[in-house]
């Protein structure tokens, strides 16, 4: 079973469970962890190509991809991280935000700017549309009741940079004015002076969900379910307060984060007891915000069950 994830702190439970073979024992077959520096956009493309079987990716990227297709090649089968993701806006080090302005007011800086993104369809591409819709910046050709999914005209240009390293280089070389990425992943570069923190935004949905190819859902539903149970166990062990020091050590030992940053993140992150659980309300809420931003078709509860959720494995919360 080929399981894709980002090379970030959220994935440490997966790396640990793959290394000690507990995921393999749970699933009943070998597990290959596929690290995707290109994020959700890269993972959805690999799912389409059949190059991976399971992806742990950003909620908004998975929902947007599936909401815009009548019968996409994968389905959402679980929720990996319940807590929301804090997106920070990274800029060149010489840019300093006005301390008298709120985070929301500072988002105005993005208007008319060149925004670096990892890939089309990634969270770094989708969240700027959410901001633009929130700010009333989108010039839409579609009416408010339209089910069409073409984005409105956003007041910035996108620069595809492939991955996190490419995004950092783009800002330093001024080919992009800013980019959005997870707060704690970017913080070491703020601390070093390579980048400057400008502001942040937190969308109102779980950070990561789990998607599986339709092939795996059809051919190996029991093994997929057991894999998800193994991921639940790995996440629970990682988040166990009794193992706090060990878990923090595992993040610090593998990544370039400071211990104080990992300790701060560890307090805020929340994993579900059973990652197979998915809320229809959460899917619909995310899809509606994406529809308002012009990047997803209108979605109802029936659509969520037929086009978005893998109900053969997911434990669906009505």
What does this structure look like?
The chain is α/β, with parallel strands linked by helices. The two termini are 29 Å apart. The longest helix is centred in the last third of the chain and has 19 residues. α6 links the parallel β6 and β7. α1 packs across α10, α4 crosses α13 and α13 packs across α14.
Q: Brief description of this entry?
A:
With 318 residues, the chain is an alpha/beta fold. Helix content is 43%, strand content 18%.
Rg for CA atoms? 19 Å
Q: Enumerate the strands of the largest sheet in spatial order, edge to edge or round the barrel.
A: 2-1-3-10-4
Overall shape: it is: globular
Number of helices: 14
Which characteristics define this entry?
318 residues, alpha/beta
Fold topology:
Blueprint lengths: L1 E4 L6 H8 L2 H6 L4 E4 L3 H11 L4 E5 H9 L6 E8 L5 E5 L11 H4 L7 E4 L5 H13 L21 E4 L3 H9 L5 E5 H10 L3 E6 L6 E6 H6 L1 H19 L4 H11 L4 H10 L8 E3 H13 L8 H8 L6 E3 L1
Parallel strand pairs: 1-2, 1-3, 6-7, 6-8, 11-12
Antiparallel strand pairs: 3-10, 4-10, 5-8, 5-9
Helix pairs in contact: 1-10, 4-13, 11-12, 13-14
């Amino acid at each position: 079973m080929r399981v894709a994830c980002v090379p970030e702190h959220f994935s440490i439970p997966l790396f640990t469970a793959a290394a000690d073979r507990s995921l393999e024992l749970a699933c009943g077959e070998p597990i290959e962890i596929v690290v995707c520096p290109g994020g959700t956009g890269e993972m959805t493309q690999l799912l389409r190509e059949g190059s991976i079987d399971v992806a742990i990716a950003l909620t908004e990227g998975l929902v947007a991809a599936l909401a815009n297709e009548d019968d996409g090649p994968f389905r959402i089968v679980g929720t990996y991280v319940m807590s929301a993701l804090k997106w920070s806006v990274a800029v060149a080090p010489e840019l300093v935000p006005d301390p008298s302005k709120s985070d929301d007011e500072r988002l105005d800086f993005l208007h008319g700017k060149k925004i670096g993104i990892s890939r089309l369809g990634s969270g770094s591409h989708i969240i700027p549309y959410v901001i633009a819709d929130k700010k009333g910046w989108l010039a839409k050709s579609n009416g408010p009741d339209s089910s069409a999914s073409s984005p409105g005209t956003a007041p910035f240009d996108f620069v595809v940079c492939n991955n996190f390293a490419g995004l950092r280089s783009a800002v330093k070389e001024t080919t992009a004015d800013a980019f959005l990425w997870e707060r704690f992943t970017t913080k070491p570069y703020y601390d070093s002076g390579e980048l400057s923190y400008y502001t942040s935004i937190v969308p109102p949905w779980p950070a990561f969900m789990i998607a599986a190819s339709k092939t795996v859902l059809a051919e190996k539903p029991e093994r997929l379910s057991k894999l998800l149970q193994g991921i639940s166990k790995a996440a629970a062990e990682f988040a166990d307060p009794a193992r706090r020091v060990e878990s923090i050590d595992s993040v610090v030992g593998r990544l370039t984060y400071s211990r104080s940053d990992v300790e701060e993140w560890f307090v805020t992150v929340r994993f579900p007891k059973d990652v197979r659980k998915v809320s229809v309300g959460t899917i619909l809420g995310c899809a509606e915000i994406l529809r308002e931003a012009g990047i997803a078709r209108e979605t109802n509860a029936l659509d969520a069950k037929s086009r978005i959720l893998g109900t053969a494995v997911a434990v669906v919360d009505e």
